[in-house]
Amino acid sequence: MTMNKKIGYILLFLTLKTTLSFSQNQTMDNTTKQIILKGKKTIVAHAFTIIKEKVPTLEINSKDYEITVWANKKEALVKFRRRIKYYPKNKQERIVYDFSVNIITQKTDIWSIDDFYTPTKQDLKNIEFVKKHAPLPSSDQFEIRINETKDQFQISCTNKVAFGKYFIDKQTGKELPSIQGSYIPMPKPNTTLSVEIDKDTLKEIFDSTTTKEILDIISIKKSN
Which of 78, 137, 194, 198 could lock onto 47 through a cystine, CB 3.0 to 4.6 A? Predict the structure, then answer.
């Protein structure tokens, strides 16, 4: 085989590879478009269908989770973040509280149901006890963690700007001395740089307004 033929085969291979990659990306963009246009409510409902198919033994109470939908030009994810993470006493093994569902691939990131946290009746009773006696924030913007010890429930509430640490006596429900504070706000990122990476960065879908913004960002125009 001459050198010219070798170069020709290489160029042909690279051309085919580029064409297939472009075609695959276009198909992925169109698939993502169709999913995004369905809106948050429909996407979340579809995520529950996938959970039922892939992890039939998993029981999910939507009230226990902050459920958000994220998308870019290649992915559409439904993220489930447990509002209150309860850590039972003497529970040493790994516990998984949060998970996501990939609407494109129809898969979840739950690798083992054994690692996934399912509250016992006693856990639920203890959580209600803490809610009754501790000043827990109602906002989804807080990460709430309850650690059970021998004599106390230790509650940690944090978000991007503030934190609180509370201690509740397990027997009396009495609130013990607490710790509260705030963080120094981080400087806002350079907006020019943010625009440059938006096409690959997952963006949260809230409503029809953000749906339109996402379609504009990933260069997918809604057909009339």
Answer: 78
Q: Indicate the domain borders of the chain.
A: 1-117+187-224, 120-186
The reported pLDDT for the residue numbered 223 is 43
Q: Which residues of the chain have pLDDT under 70?
A: 1-29, 31, 92-93, 139, 185-200, 207-224
153: its two tokens: 């429930």
To the question of pTM greater than 0.85 for the whole model, the response is no
Q: Are strands 84-87 and 143-148 parallel, antiparallel or unpaired?
A: parallel
Question: If you write DSSP's letter for every residue of 108-172 in order, what string do you get?
Answer: E----TTTB----HHHHHHHHHHHHHS-----TTSEEEEEE-SSEEEEEEE-SSEEEEEEEETTT
Task: Give me the helices (H) in the chain, please.
Answer: 3-37, 40-54, 121-133, 191-197, 208-217
**210, 198 contact by CB (below 8 A):** no
What is the sign, positive or negative, of the torsion defined by CA atoms of 112, 117, 81, 181? negative
Q: Give the span between the Cα atoms of 169 and 189, in whole angstroms.
A: 43
Amino acid letter, 41: K
Phi, then psi, of 41 in degrees rounded to 5: -60, -45
Q: CB under 8 Å to 122, separation ≥6 — which residues?
A: none
